[in-house]
Amino acid sequence: MNNNHRRQRSLADRVQDVTTTDLRRLSARCQEIGGINLSQGVCDLPVPPEVKEAAHKAIDDDKAIYTNIAGLIELRQAIARKMKNFNGITVDPQTDIAVTVGSTGAWACVAMALLNPGDEVVVFSPGYYYYLDAFKMLGATARIVDTTPPDWKYSKEELAAAFNEKTRMVIVNTPTNPTGKVYSRDELLEIAALAKQYDAWIIADEIYEYITFENDHVSIASLPDAQDRTITLSGPSKTYAVTGWRIGYAAGSAEVIDKVLAVNDLFYICAPAPMQYGVLAAMNLPQSFLDQQRQEYRQKRDMLADALSAVGFVPHIPQGAFYIMADFGPGRYRNSLDAAESILEQTGVATVPGTPFCFKKGEGETMLRICFAKRFEVLEEACRRLQQLET
């Protein structure tokens, strides 16, 4: 066929501006040089034995076929109990829960079920940049509300100004990736009131819900103004060190979950069956497991903060999750990407630039996000290496 008659081949418009991040590249480089990866939110902690045994048994018992598209009913029942006892939210395991391929899969299904082109979504910055990429692909627009260190407070006036008649959704990630902010009850009440005023959905990303330090976790769906308009996302990945198992869930009104499941079925069919059995065992672990984990993460947070302070960084101490946003100040590096690359080559420790998490241009250029979800001996070695940096 003559080249002039060939149909022009091109990518879909929805992916033109969507790219993989520097985080993936830095992680790959860290692996190449045998470094210590404090960039990705990947826990290298051991999976609890009971959890591994349950997954092994499911594999040995040939539980390898599709589950119900909503997930194992036993797992949904365990999630419902946990949500009532821990989150203060009542959901029906038969109709109100969708087990998904990770909490990111839950977010993708919810976003596709609720957002139309032209819709506006209120998001807080710094925040999880996957939200913005989903908006681009779906034709929605982000309305950004800044939070500022050291305690990552937002302006009430800026929050109110972000809502309008086009507002379809507000996203609340608490504890927050990357800042570790834990939203207070008063803050959540303010957000819920605005969502009610403008009849907007609330998406509560609570994947780090068990990892809090000074402040207790509050679920926005437990508040009266938010109960009927909130979809809660969570999962076991961060709590039980099973990020690669890809199990998460969305919980909320049956009307929305029905459509979330339709999308889930279209793209994923169901979450991995053996892993669901493993997660079911995880949800039956005693409270002492969670208490010890929280205590150890607090120790690791303080260890990393001390190491960063010793080399002239300003660590913004998180209230939850397992990241520190650290400011290295102007003039030390060209920008946050240069800082992450330089530190990796100099010390063999991977961090991630702050800019992808900051949704307004020019923000985050003197900050790095650093993960402390590592075994004590690994984190100690990383801190020793970081202390080789010149102040």
SSE string, helices as H and strands as E: HEHHEHEHEEHEHEEEHHHEEHEEEH
Q: How many strands appear in the DSSP assignment?
A: 14
Report, as a whole number of angstroms, the end-to-end distance. Answer: 64 Å
Percentage of residues in strands: 15-25%
Query: Given the helix and strand composition, which structural class is it?
Result: alpha/beta
Report the C-alpha radius of gyration, rounded: 21 Å
**Uncertain stretches of 5 or more adjacent residues:** none
Tally of alpha and pi helices:
12
Shape: globular
How many strands, which pairing sense, and closed or not: the largest β-sheet?
8 strands, mixed
The main sheet orders its strands as: 2-9-8-7-6-3-4-5
Residues in helix, % = 25-40%
